[in-house]
Amino acid sequence: MPALAQPLATNFPNRPIRIFAAWAPGPNVYTRVLTDLISPRLGQPVVIENRAGANGTLAARAVRSEQADGYTLAQIPGSVFRLPYMTARPPFDPVADFTYIICLTGYTFGVVVRADSPYRSWADFISAARRNPGGISYGSPGIGTESHVVMEQIAGTESVEWLHAPYRGGSELTSALLSGTIDAVATASHWSQLVLDGRLRLLNVWTQDRIRRYPDAPTLRELGYDIVATSPYGLAGPKGMDPGTVAVLHDAFKAALYHPDSLAYLEGLDQPVIYMDSETYTGFVKQQVHKEREIVRRMNLRLD
Predict the structure, then answer these.
(1) CATH superfamily, with its number, for domain 17-106+231-299
(2) Mean pLDDT, to the nearest integer, of 281-291?
(3) Residues of 231-260 as b/e, b for ≥16 C-beta within 10 angstroms?
């Protein structure tokens, strides 16, 4: 990793650090694991404040107006790089408005149906969509989310049409699926335990390789789609942060990320480690924003 300048304030941090979390408390449990590991290293409490909303972009919007002193950070999900281009008045510039500190991990997405569903494989699901255009429904966490975008990319490749039903989160999606309101759910691994319990069937995963706990679920690449979708996320602060302060935060979070407790928790979530240092993460964001802008244009994704 390239050397970074030492912090100007050698006593950083000397008071608690806040992290604006992008999702509700349940999906943010891993962030809590990290803060428990990092607080002793920094010698200060690290407090999580939930800023759920706006498809995961509310935390980014909130941190944008904070002081660039390292004491307020935000969780940055992939939606931060896409949603500004889905509205006529972007609420922020994902490249210019933030200081990117570290990329940590990503999500394990997949498509699930009920265990008693007639769709026993992905081929069954696609065949049904071909026979009944617009009659097969799937739920996602919202318009423009990774789940929505990938499912529509697949629909274009397969020349099928299905009904997209956006919901506000994992619990609503699960309830709708179990009640029969929708035929399938495409989202991150909120479905994990229900699959292991035999109540849901996992038709595919969107990771690079198959998941150890679900060896029968093929990847999208195995199914013929050149798609790997893990929506990497990390932490950022307001623009203009001192490089030395960034280095202190990066090193502390990297140590927490690779702590055995952190790695064990990620394994339990089936989430991969997707580590990037500050410079690499910033470069990734620039590339990702270019890709997302093109996806929004091509798919005509709009929030207004």
Answers:
(1) Bordetella uptake gene, domain 1 (3.40.190.150)
(2) 97
(3) bbbbbbbbeebbebbbbbbbbbbbebbebe
